[in-house]
Amino acid sequence: MAFAGNVMALLFQLLAVFLLLLIIQFAVPQLHPILYSAIYLFVFAYVTFTVLVPFIKKLSELFHGIPQPYGRLLIVSAFLFFISEAITHHLSESGYTSLANLALLVIKIAILTLWLPELMNLIQTLTTLIAP
Amino acid sequence: MFIIDFVQSLVGGLLYSFIIVIITSLFATVMNYLFPSYAEWIKQLFFVVIVLVVLRPAFLQLLLVQSLMKSIAVLFITSYPILTAGMAISGNALNLINFQPALLLFANGAVYFADRLLLPLVTVALLFDVVTRLYPLISYSKLSDMLRTTLLATVSSVVAAYSVFITAGGVVSWGISEAASEPIKELIRQNIPFVGSLVTDSMGSLGRYSSGAGFMVGGWLLVTLWSISILPVVQTLVLAFLYRWSAALIEPFTSIEISDLLDDIGRSLFVLCAITFLMIFAFVYTVLFFIVYIKLAVN
Questions:
Q1: Which residue ranges run through the membrane (chain B) (predicted)?
Q2: Average of pLDDT values for B69-87?
Q3: Distance, in angstroms, between B47 CA and closest chain A CA?
Q4: Closest-CA residue of chain A to B64
């Protein structure tokens, strides 16, 4: 119940941020992009640490039956992808699509690096079958 | 007790991996709901997990049969010169129980054939199944299906040739009378897909053969020999059944590809079971020949 209340409060806070941004856009239009970015990053970190991380922890506890490296890897890679998507979305929204592409590429490489041992394992398993 | 433990360990491990399939697919569904843009990746990674965790018993079984086949082929190559020399010296072994010397050649040929051609083809069929599901745009499903059918046809024709050989030797009847065993055979044939008819066909020839050797070797020894050497076949058969069962069980819960993959792996394991049976047949024949030969030499 406390968790649900937390989430509802967060929703309200997001609305407040939205109103604040509207006021800024009206009052100081030149400062709007930078203030928007700053507030976005702040709110993003806040949402991630108050809602997403605890929820993901709970989820991985719930699915502890999945053999050890894989469940954690799946969750972590999805989480990383979510972060990169949020950032790239924000970047391309402000018109920096090339930067957004770079960020996406970096995160993709990070995820693949996490999975590399398992992929090696897969290749090894399949090659031992056909080894003479 | 040993058999029960053995089956329990086999079934327990497999059941565990199927529960994992169900849990993991549920988890993937939750992930898809949370991060919809990541769905494609989740699917691929999920597949990697399935191949690594759930298909491991099948791969291990295949490796086990491969190593068994290799060692038996080596055993045959090293022991057949001695056996044939012994046969040449004490010719009365042949008169006693109608051993066909050509059958030795046949057994060796079958094992060589299985080691060099049949087993690699099963492996290829299994790999084709995995690759097809891993990258569905290039599908090898018809090819692997064709490979399995061809292999089964080959193995059953080899077993049919065995029975022709043994019948030509003129060794007498099978312990249970024909009338009593017919319904049992029909039951097995209908209930075990693919391998059932093969097993019943070869059961007749084995019976004919073993009853000839029985009075020489002793019934209990024969039973022991058969039950020990049939163990890999039973193991493969149980594994194949479990894969097909679990494919049927998880079909409502996961994507169709995973269940299809498990089903195909089960089919490939049935073929593997048939090939293992071929090997066991040759092995038991050779061991019996050894026993008879040594007994005659001692006498």
A1: 12-35, 41-65, 72-97, 117-138, 150-176, 220-243, 269-294
A2: 79
A3: 11
A4: A129
The per-residue pLDDT for range A58-73, each reduced to its tens digit, is 888 888 877 777 888 8
**Predicted complex ipTM:** 0.78
A125 and B63: CB-CB below 8 Å? no
Cβ separation of B23 and A75 shorter than 8 Å?
Answer: no
pLDDT score recorded for residue B48:
85
Quickly state the pLDDT bin for B177 (edges 50, 70, 90).
very low
- Give the count of alpha carbons within 13 A of A45, CB side only: 5
| Burial of B237 from C-beta contacts in 10 A (0-12 / 13-18 / 19+) | buried
User: Which DSSP symbol is given to A49?
Assistant: I
Nearest CB to A129 within list B38, B45, B123 = B123
pLDDT in tens, A79-113: 888 888 888 988 888 888 898 889 889 988 999 99
Report CA torsion sign: A104, A109, A110, A115.
Answer: positive
CA-based nearest residue in chain B for residue A114: B45
> What pLDDT score does B114 carry?
83
What is the Cα–Cα distance from B43 to B36, expressed in whole angstroms? Answer: 11
Looking at the partner chain, which of A115, A121, A126 has a beta carbon nearest the beta carbon of B45? A115
Extents of the domains making up chain A:
36-130
Residue B170 pLDDT grade (very low, low, confident, very high; cuts 50, 70, 90): very low
Nearest Cα neighbor of B33 from B23, B44, B42 is: B42
Which residues touch A3 (CB under 8 Å, ≥6 apart)? Answer: A54
Interface test with A, best of B46, B49, B67, B272 (most A CBs within 10 A): B49
Q: Do B48 and A122 touch (CB under 8 A)?
A: yes
Which residue in B128, B156, B122 sits closest to B142, CA to CA? B128
